[in-house]
Amino acid sequence: MLDGAALFLDFDGTLVPLADTPDAVHVDDDLLSMLVRLRDRLDGRLAIVSGRSIATLRDLGFGDFLMSGTHGLEFAHPGEDVKAPPRLPAIDAVEAAFNDFVADKPGLLVERKSISVGLHFRGAPIWGEAAGALADLLARDHGLALQHGKMLYELRPGGADKGSALTALMQEAPMAGGIPVFIGDDVTDEEGFAAAAHLGGAGILVGTPRPTLASFSLEQVAAVRHYLMEGAAG
Ligand SMILES: O=P(O)(O)OC[C@H]1O[C@H](O[C@H]2O[C@H](CO)[C@@H](O)[C@H](O)[C@H]2O)[C@H](O)[C@@H](O)[C@@H]1O
């Protein structure tokens, strides 16, 4: 089924299971070597499209891959510099406000990212509503985009999403000419599903069924890995 595809892969919750904290995920060598084999079969048409920053994705082992990071704001080809907007002073102000908020609330976590900042409440779900209210207020005060995630609120510059990333990458080598297939699990992946469908391809939703713009589904990360492995083996 993947023959002819231009494959766009989300990271957290798609290639690796969700973990308690952002730093607790593990990328195994088997995953990386399988993705390399699959990319070879697809004549290079494989990209990682994540909410993570490209710096973090490179640290996790994806340095050799075409990538878009921070929900469509960053781009990088293997071995090349990251193309990204600058880190705004407003992001530093939000990070300071988030740090004040979490100071007396064990379990909450502030994730400093290259050009954005996340407030995680997986470790203290009781604070989810208050975290959302704060994130919403700060987004409006500072003119930033509020990105919803899984047990996460993230503030970032607007003007891009995973759909715009897919559309941009489809216009150039190596993705151009393929049929776009976007695999992801989160709400931030919905724009990717929509853009893939708009260009004649499709989205694949990972995880529990929900209203989605994806046309297909896979039930969990293990099923994604199996599906990709079969694609890599041909
Ligand atoms: O677009 P993705 O690759 O799925 O990245 C989205 C966000 O993923 C990370 O947060 C999520 O995964 C964490 C580790 O499993 C989990 O603890 C957290 O609850 C999830 O929301 C990452 O930390 C964010 O920066 C990404 O934006």
Automatic annotation (TrEMBL):
Superkingdom field: Bacteria
Reactions listed under catalytic activity: alpha,alpha-trehalose 6-phosphate + H2O = alpha,alpha-trehalose + phosphate
Family: Belongs to the trehalose phosphatase family.
Enzyme Commission number(s) from the entry: 3.1.3.12
Organism: Sphingobium limneticum
Name of the featured protein: Trehalose 6-phosphate phosphatase
Gene3D superfamilies xrefs: HAD superfamily/HAD-like (3.40.50.1000), Trehalose-6-phosphate phosphatase related protein, domain 2 (3.30.70.1020)
Cofactors, names only: Mg(2+)
Isomerase listed as a keyword: no
Pfam families: Trehalose_PPase (PF02358)
Sample GO molecular function, one term: metal ion binding
Any single biological process term in GO: trehalose biosynthetic process
Pathway assigned to this chain's UniProt record: Glycan biosynthesis; trehalose biosynthesis
InterPro entries: HAD-like_sf, HAD-SF_hydro_IIB, HAD_sf, OTSB-like, Trehalose_PPase
Function, as annotated: Removes the phosphate from trehalose 6-phosphate to produce free trehalose.
Keyword tags: Hydrolase, Magnesium, Metal-binding
